[in-house]
Write a structure and sequence with these properties.
Structural class: alpha+beta
Strand order of the largest sheet: 3-5-6-8-7
Order of helices and strands: HHHHHHEEHEEHEEHHEEE
Radius of gyration: 56 Å
Helix content: 55-70%
Largest sheet: 5 strands, mixed
Distance between the termini: 54 Å
Strand content: 5-15%
Number of helices: 10
């Protein structure tokens, strides 16, 4: 499933689960609406009709009294219309199931209608006493019976309406609970889908980011933290990532082989040049003029620099190819420090620099290191310290114990290195912006070789610096290491033009 399909499907599912609570709420509202309609069209309407029926019965009573007073056709017609109206209202209430009230009212009206006709005929014949008996014995009791039938009907309507209102409230409450529960479930499902979607996207992104960082740090065999065979965009990116690392590894191998071959092939012609220069300086080919001597010295210095560069390139290529060996053997640490002090004492005097070697208490007498390699590292760092320290400055070499090893620090009061450049100083060919304060120019390989040698001793090398105040290089080495071949991964080459 591609990433686009996964996104579309996830969004559709989230939309669907969020719509469900709305649908449930809609159903509940429709049910409540139906209840309200039934209440309005049923009990509420019946209650209104009962009120009208009560008024109709009162009108019948009033019309019957008017008949006894007026004894006219008009009064009789009005009574007849009032009885018809009351009867029609009673018939309309018949389908509202008012517990027999409509039957009682209908029977009463059925009794009143012929009695009212007889009453009118008696009045018309001048038989007032007969008409009054009909009114008092038949019509009045029937009206009272009809009036007594209405209160139970009204009570039944009130009870039924209350029950329906209670049912509607309960339905509304149930609908609200169901809607809230559905909303909670929908939110949980939507959250779960969103988390799954985020994780399915973010994990490969993080893995690719970590992979690119690892490649930038030289780890060309880095494995991505997700299935590279997945059938989506990330799978294609993973394939491209693997192809990129494969090509970079091949390029790095070719580069290392080229540097190794080039530096090795340079050694022979440079050695021949130096040999002939030495013979010329010794007068084997005859005496040299002062100008020729000056030229040969310049050629000799440049050839020596070229020979040193070829040696450093060969050294770096050997370490990167896994061919850099260290031959560890027991050495006297005080003797090594004394030799370094003697070696750089002359340089310190020449440049008017205060040079000190400080030996802290607890320093072991004997260590198992590769003498030549460690001497090369410390000599290289000390040379840099002198190179960037002006007259009147200080350079210190401090050796002391460090847990299970030895810590050697080289501290100077020179130009210092900018903070953003410190992380690059151990990369090949990198030269910081402080080159203008150096007494001589370098190649940018010394610290890269030093790092390889220290790591081959299972040690660590680090640097701290403050611009204008000085720099401190720290070497932490175990007391004893075994002879082994250094295996190193790809190191990125960073070039920077000196200021």
């Amino acid at each position: 499933m591609t990433l686009r399909v996964r996104l579309a499907l996830s969004l559709a599912i989230i939309a669907a689960v969020l719509i469900v609570p709305l649908v449930l709420a809609r159903v509940s509202m429709q049910s409540l609406h139906r209840e309200m309609l039934e209440l309005r069209e049923g009990d509420f309407k019946a209650s209104l009709m009962l009120g009208r029926l009560r008024d109709g019965l009162a009108d019948v009573r009033a019309r019957e009294v008017a008949l006894g007073v007026l004894k006219s056709d008009t009064a009789n017609n009005n009574l007849t219309l009032a009885l018809q109206k009351a009867t029609a209202l009673t018939d309309s209430l018949g389908h509202y199931h008012l517990d027999g009230a409509t039957t009682r009212v209908r029977d009463a009206l059925a009794t009143i209608t012929p009695a009212a006709q007889r009453e009118y005929e008696a009045f018309s014949s001048g038989k007032d006493s007969l008409a009054e008996r009909i009114s008092s014995d038949t019509i009045a009791p029937a009206l009272r019976e009809a009036d007594r039938a209405l209160p139970p009907a009204e009570a039944a309507l009130r009870t039924r309406a209350a029950e329906r209102v209670s049912a509607a409230e309960e339905a509304l409450s149930d609908g609200l609970r169901i809607s809230l529960a559905a909303l909670a479930v929908a939110l949980l499902l939507a959250t779960a889908i969103a988390l799954w979607l985020t994780r399915s996207i973010s994990r490969p992104v993080w893995a690719l980011e970590a992979g690119m960082g690892a490649v930038a740090d030289g780890e060309l065999d880095h494995k991505l933290g997700f299935d590279v065979n997945r059938q989506d965009e990330f799978g294609r990116l993973a394939v491209s990532f693997q192809e990129m690392t494969r090509q970079l590894a091949e390029l790095d191998k070719l580069k290392a082989e080229f540097v190794s071959i080039a530096s090795h092939e340079l050694k022979t012609p440079v050695s021949v040049i130096l040999g002939y220069l030495q013979l010329m300086e010794d007068g084997v080919y005859g005496p040299l003029t002062e100008k020729q001597i000056s030229v040969t010295k310049t050629i000799h210095a440049q050839a020596t620099t070229l020979a040193r560069l070829a040696h450093q390139l060969l050294d770096v290529s050997r370490f990167e190819a896994g061919g850099g060996r260290i031959e560890a053997r027991p050495i006297k640490l005080p003797q090594m420090l004394d030799e370094l002090e003697r070696t750089f004492h002359v340089l310190a005097v020449q440049r008017d620099i205060d040079f000190r070697v400080i030996r802290e208490e607890g320093l072991p007498v004997e260590v198992t290191w590769d003498w030549e390699r460690i001497n090369e590292v410390t000599g290289n760092i000390l040379s840099n310290a002198f190179k960037f320290t002006g007259a009147g400055g200080t350079v210190e070499l401090i050796a002391g114990p460090d847990e299970n090893g030895v810590c050697i620090q080289v501290r100077d009061s020179g130009a210092g290195i900018a903070p953003d450049q410190l992380k690059h100083v151990f990369q090949k060919f990198y030269q910081a912006d402080n080159q203008t304060s150096a007494s001589t120019k370098g190649t940018g390989l010394g610290l890269a070789i030093a790092k390889e040698i220290v790591e081959a001793h299972q040690g660590k090398i680090s640097v701290t610096s403050v611009v204008g105040t000085g720099t401190t290089f720290s070497l932490t080495l175990p007391i004893a290491v075994v002879s082994r071949r250094r295996t190193s991964g790809f190191r990125p080459v960073v070039t920077k033009t000196s200021a």
